[in-house]
Amino acid sequence: MHVVLAGGGTAGHIEPALALADALRRQDPTVGITALGTERGLETRLVPERGYDLALIPAVPLPRRPTPELITVPGRLRGTIKAAQDILERTKADCVVGFGGYVALPGYLAAKRRGVPIVVHEANARPGLANKIGSRYTSFVAVSTPDSKLRDARYIGIPLRRSIATLDRAAVRPEARAAFGLDQNLPTLLVSGGSQGARRLNETVQAVAPRLQQSGIQILHAVGPKNELPVVDHMPGMPPYRPVPYLDRMDLAYAAADMMLCRAGAMTVAELSAVGLPAAYVPLPIGNGEQRLNAQPVVKAGGGLLVDDAELTPEWVLSHVVPVLSDPHRLYAMSHAASEFGRRDADELLVGMVREAVAAGRAG
């Protein structure tokens, strides 16, 4: 069996694709895997690092919503679709699995032309244009939220890295807190805004950090590699405040924390839910509002808080986050609710869908 993955562009598309690739290889080391990508995407680094073949096609950016520009897409796509068809023919592809973005659409259209089975995975609560189109060509559609609007959708969650999907936070906590120089017994707030959404979170946390410390809360703060580290006044006897540029071991960061203050990207919500880490979600106030939709189901289940970007202030943190971190019973209840909502086995479930699609294609 040879599977072609179409999920280039951003980490939100690439990481689920690579998690599926890992799961396919765990079940059958002989499975052939090729990832479609473009020269401009993160896949040029991430895919080879994980040991998978990368085949490049021309990039054709897609409008996020129907606009007059949409009518020019088919003409611009012709060469890209032909390049994708050539890859499907060369690899003798048995299935194309798309994860959205501008790599997925030519993958879907090439698969349709060649009669190759298609599987669609949509990570966001509000599907993008590529997956809306791709879902019309297949009955094998996987989604990350239980209330997806895509037809024939199966709720499976998002395929996660094994280091996250198998994480036992309680067991790893002593090692994790020691690694970051944190106290073993104090309530711990993890803060990260990602690469694009860190500024507002950074400003708020830096302003409120001394009052959090005075409340007995320690902080692990990933400020972002392009942002300046705050100057920390190490107050004797106060809980630690540990600002770092970047966290390359998110599993350890999750294990060290009792709660997280973060944006609400689909991957972040999926990872926190899977490991049972409560969060205060601050959706990015851009795009089509998908980050709020990503967070709403787990918040409704009791596994997190939700606050608009404009309302995130030091006062909000003190009145909403501190009470949670200061109440072990509430922390436990929110952690349990998050883990009950989360899915750790999405990679295995998606492998099952791929095998179904391949079997149906061969039978047809």
From TrEMBL:
Enzyme class name: transferase
Any single GO BP term: cell wall organization
Topology relative to the membrane: Peripheral membrane protein
Localization (cell): Cell membrane
Location of the Glycosyltransferase family 28 N-terminal domain: 3-140
Occurrences of domain Glycosyl transferase family 28 C-terminal (ranges): 188-349
EC identifiers of the protein: 2.4.1.227
Coiled-coil intervals: none
GO CC terms in record: plasma membrane
MF terms (GO), sorted A to Z: UDP-N-acetyl-D-glucosamine:N-acetylmuramoyl-L-alanyl-D-glutamyl-meso-2,6-diaminopimelyl-D-alanyl-D-alanine-diphosphoundecaprenol 4-beta-N-acetylglucosaminlytransferase activity; undecaprenyldiphospho-muramoylpentapeptide beta-N-acetylglucosaminyltransferase activity
Recorded catalytic activity of this chain's protein: di-trans,octa-cis-undecaprenyl diphospho-N-acetyl-alpha-D-muramoyl-L-alanyl-D-glutamyl-meso-2,6-diaminopimeloyl-D-alanyl-D-alanine + UDP-N-acetyl-alpha-D-glucosamine = di-trans,octa-cis-undecaprenyl diphospho-[N-acetyl-alpha-D-glucosaminyl-(1->4)]-N-acetyl-alpha-D-muramoyl-L-alanyl-D-glutamyl-meso-2,6-diaminopimeloyl-D-alanyl-D-alanine + UDP + H(+)
Keyword Cell wall biogenesis/degradation: yes
SUPFAM superfamilies linked to this entry: UDP-Glycosyltransferase/glycogen phosphorylase (SSF53756)
Keyword annotations from UniProtKB, A to Z: Cell cycle, Cell division, Cell membrane, Cell shape, Cell wall biogenesis/degradation, Glycosyltransferase, Membrane, Peptidoglycan synthesis, Transferase
Top-level division of the source organism's lineage: Bacteria
Pathway: Cell wall biogenesis; peptidoglycan biosynthesis
Positions of UDP-N-acetyl-alpha-D-glucosamine binding: T10, A11, G12, N124, R161, S195, Q291
Matching PANTHER family: GLYCOSYLTRANSFERASE, UDP-N-ACETYLGLUCOSAMINE--N-ACETYLMURAMYL-(PENTAPEPTIDE) PYROPHOSPHORYL-UNDECAPRENOL N-ACETYLGLUCOSAMINE TRANSFERASE 1
Family: Belongs to the glycosyltransferase 28 family. MurG subfamily.
Function summary: Cell wall formation. Catalyzes the transfer of a GlcNAc subunit on undecaprenyl-pyrophosphoryl-MurNAc-pentapeptide (lipid intermediate I) to form undecaprenyl-pyrophosphoryl-MurNAc-(pentapeptide)GlcNAc (lipid intermediate II).
Protein name: UDP-N-acetylglucosamine--N-acetylmuramyl-(pentapeptide) pyrophosphoryl-undecaprenol N-acetylglucosamine transferase
Organism for this UniProt entry: Wenjunlia vitaminophila (Streptomyces vitaminophilus)
The encoding gene: murG
